[in-house]
């Protein structure tokens, strides 16, 4: 029973990644799962319910991965490095789910949408707290915490759209590049205000 639920979810991840949520039908999901259309509703209330379960589990796993990465990191620079690395690696290693999470949010009901956005806000707040602490300790430059947190997360999330597991760099090597680039920017970044603005 649980195995079929997992199978359906796995099939959906592949289909939503390849075809998109709206272009995927219940018939497609049933065919891929090797069951009748009606059998899907025994496990999930609707196609939207399936999307919600994918997005929720992805967000929960992302948050757990971040907490695990931060658990042993000491000092603000190492904690930010751990956070960036955790985010990048998760998005490359779980590429399909993360692509769906960022491309198909509009497919959710208002209630489910609010639930996922709340989880995202809580996740973003961890990065904002790290940036703020780094500023207070004068390790990072004085910046707009909220905007910079969005910039960092958007940059790190983008890997899910272009990553190729057969490419020339490993996940770890890509994470190194992101990590060093972001830390360098946080330490040295200064906003130059153009005269007259």
Keywords:
10 helices; 197 residues
Care to describe what's here?
The chain is an all-alpha fold and 197 residues long. It is 75% helix and 0% strand. It has 10 helices and no strands. It has helices at 2-19, 26-33, 37-43, 47-71, 76-93, 95-103, 110-136, 145-157, 159-162, 171-188. Helix 5 (76-93) packs parallel to helix 8. The longest helix has 27 residues, at 110-136. It is elongated. The termini are far apart. Residues 190-197 have low confidence and may be disordered.
Helix content: over 70%
End-to-end distance, in Å?
Answer: 63 Å
Low-confidence stretches: 190-197
Q: Radius of gyration from the CA trace?
A: 19 Å
Query: SSE string, helix = H, strand = E?
Result: HHHHHHHHHH
Tally of individual helices: 10
Coarse morphology:
elongated
- Give the number of DSSP strands: 0
* Main sheet record: none
Assess the beta-strand content as a share of residues: under 5%
State the secondary-structure class: mainly alpha
Mean pLDDT: 92
């Amino acid at each position: 029973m649980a195995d079929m639920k997992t199978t359906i979810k796995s099939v959906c991840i592949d289909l939503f990644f390849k075809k998109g949520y709206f272009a995927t039908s219940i018939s497609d999901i049933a065919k891929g799962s090797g069951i009748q259309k009606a059998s899907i509703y025994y496990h999930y209330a609707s196609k939207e319910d399936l999307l919600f379960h994918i997005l929720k589990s992805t967000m929960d796993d992302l948050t757990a991965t971040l907490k695990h990465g931060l658990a042993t990191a000491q000092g603000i620079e190492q904690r930010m490095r751990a956070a960036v690395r955790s985010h990048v690696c998760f998005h490359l290693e779980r590429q399909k789910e993360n692509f769906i999470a960022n491309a198909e949010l509009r497919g959710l009901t208002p209630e489910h949408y609010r639930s996922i956005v709340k989880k995202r806000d809580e996740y973003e707040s961890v990065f904002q707290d790290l940036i703020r602490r780094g500023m207070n300790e004068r390790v990072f430059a004085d910046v707009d915490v909220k905007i910079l947190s969005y910039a960092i997360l958007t940059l790190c999330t983008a890997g899910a759209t272009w990553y190729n597991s057969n490419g020339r760099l490993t996940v770890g090597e890509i994470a190194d590049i992101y990590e060093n680039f972001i830390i360098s920017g946080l330490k040295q970044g200064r906003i130059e205000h153009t005269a007259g603005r």
